[in-house]
Amino acid sequence: MVATVAFTRLDFFRTPRGPDGKRRYLRPMVGPEDLARIRAAIAHAIGLYG
Questions:
Q1: What is the pLDDT of residues 19-35, one digit of tens each?
Q2: 26, 37 in Cβ contact below 8 A?
Q3: C-beta of residue 50 within 8 angstroms of C-beta of residue 40
Q4: What are phi and psi of 33, to 5 degrees?
Q5: What separation in angstroms does the CA of 21 have from each of 16, 18, 24, 28, 30?
Q6: pLDDT of residue 17
Q7: Measured between alpha carbons, how far is 45 from 30 in angstroms, rounded to an integer?
Q8: What is the pLDDT of residue 50?
Q9: Which of 27-38 are b and which e, b meaning 16 or more Cβ less than 10 Å from the residue's Cβ?
Q10: What is the pTM of this model?
Q11: Hey, which residues does 14 pair with through a beta bridge?
């Protein structure tokens, strides 16, 4: 299933507040190799593979 959402609706992963009381957010990064695998899996799932 492919879904579209507005960019403004996206949110960061929340983690416990820091020692200063401010909110902290988790910002995971995907490496180039993993991103290539993700793209290949999505293309396969929607029938765009060779």
A1: 999 999 888 889 999 99
A2: no
A3: no
A4: -65, -45
A5: 9, 5, 9, 22, 28
A6: 92
A7: 20
A8: 59
A9: eeeeeeeeeeee
A10: 0.53
A11: 25
For every residue of the chain, DSSP letters joined together read: ------GGG--PEEE---TTS--EEE-----HHHHHHHHHHHHHHTT---
CA angle (36 as vertex; 34, 38 as ends), nearest 5: 70
Task: Provide the residue count of the chain.
Answer: 50
Residue tagged 């993993």 (tokens): 34
Tokens 């200063």 — which residue? 20
Higher pLDDT, 47 or 13: 47
- What residues contact residue 2 under an 8 Å CB cut-off, 6+ apart? 46
